[in-house]
Amino acid sequence: MALTVGYRDHSYFCRVFKKYLGVTPKTYQEQLLSQNMDDQQALKQAKLYAVANLDTLPPQEADSWSRSRQPG
C-alpha cells in the first residue's frame, strides 16, 4: 500500500498514517472490514423483513440499515 500512494519506505508510511489517523494501516483495514461486515448483515436482515412483507424492522436493525443506505 505504501508504494501505491508514493511512499518508498513502508515503515515511514506506517508512522505517518498512524500520526494522522491514530491507528496503523492494518488496524484501520481490520476496522473497515468489520464495519462492512456489520453493514452487510444489517442489509441482509432488512431484505429478509422486506421479503416477509413486514411493515417495520426492529429499532436496532432499522437504524443500522438506514445508516448504511445514506449517501456518503
Describe the structure.
- The protein is mainly alpha-helical and 72 residues long.
- It has a domain at 24-69.
- The chain has 3 helices and no strands.
- It has helices at residues 10-21, 25-51, 59-69.
- Helix 2 (25-51) packs across helix 3 (59-69).
- The model has no long low-confidence stretch (mean pLDDT 76).
Summarize this structure as a short list of keywords or feature phrases:
72 residues, mainly alpha, 3 helices
Would you count the extended β strands for me? Answer: 0
**Integer average pLDDT:** 76
* Oligomeric organization of the protein chains: single chain
Instruction: Please indicate the percent range of residues in DSSP E strands (runs of 2 or more).
Output: under 5%
Secondary-structure element string: HHH
Low-confidence stretches: none
Span between termini: 24 Å
Biggest β-sheet, characterized?
none
